[in-house]
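Input set for joint prediction.
Command: fold jointly, output tokens.
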Amino acid sequence: MTNQDRPSEGGDRMGPPKPDRDLQALSAFIDDELPGNERDAVAERVAGDPASEATVAAYRAQDNALRALFADQSEPQIVRLRPRSRERYLIAAGFMAVGLACGFLLQMLLPALGDKPRFAERADIAYAVYAPEQRHAVEVAASQQDHLVTWLSKRLNRAVTIPSLAEYGFQLVGGRLLPDEEGPAAQFMYQNAAGERLTLYMTTATIRRNDSKIRTLKDGQRTTFYWAWNRVGYALSGQIGEEKLQAIAYDTCKELGGDPKNW
Amino acid sequence: MSFESDLLAHLPQLRRYARALTGDRAWADDLVQDATERALNRARSFHAGTNLRAWLFTIMRNLYIDQLRGRRDIAVDDESAPWRQMAAPRGEVDGLVLRDVQRALYCLPVEQREVMLLVCVEEMSYQEASVVLNVPTGTVMSRLSRAREHMRVLLGEESGRKASPSSLKVVSRS
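tokens >
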């Protein structure tokens, strides 16, 4: 017989340094699993060697104790015969289909029920706070645009693109880092010749799913259009009139990779 | 029909093994339930005339190993391990305190525990146990030998541990 197992599970705790083979023979001797000649040899050894005798006695005691431990199993076992597995799979599949349908419907309905992402509210407030600011409107000015992009890409853990709104007459003023609910957000500020300002807010922290449909949040004079794409939440805020802002929002969404089919 | 009645005859033994292996009545009953169902659904793959008991034990053992893996993922710590909730048995057999034997059994690695239960409690031959465990008979022999020796060491530690607090008491009293 070869030892096919790992050499010794917990071998260092085995106590007396008896050769494994001898112990195996004693163990198999108790179970009457040795061929005749070997069995006789072991029997002889046990009779003449107190240590082997003690080992055999200890193993036998273990066996008896274990049998005593699990002796009493008299109460009846009840086995319920449920539908065969194929039927069960069909039932499970049915439930799963219903579940999936419910989940899908819920996801369609929830935004319609006014589930505003918090990032849109935060973007709106950030606009209200920073847009009137004259001297400290941004942390990093547009003149250092490369640095701005590198810095905020690093903080948002995503390659950030700053869209150009020049065709609408808005130039980049710069950007800043802001706290969103669970992580960082970036705010980019734009300004036109008349001094009107827009902000584009981006966050990656709380975005769990894509929703590139553009939605609106209004608070007083301020309007925010927001959407989520590729696990980034975007919000464009301003007070230049809803229609004009919406046109810019749609173009921005497209430029940043959103799908116009969803609009 | 005889397949089902043969199967029923093995249920008490199957349950004894499940309880001993898991140390948890509820888990054991579920195992027996699952194993019985699987056996009935796969009755056709059983070759008449071969060892039905080994076949049933194999099915249940595979289920147990799967479920054990699942439970390990939830990280069962020692304190909440199923056998901590087991009733402590009373009494001694051949000079061994049953409570200590129970504790030692669940300290063994599962490979050692299962071979020990199959041979010592279910009284399977090494050959039958090798079918259930899907290892060569030589492995059954060596693993069982290690399990017994391991248990002897554990039981020795138990009595050693019992001796030390009493000597501490003496010191604190003086």
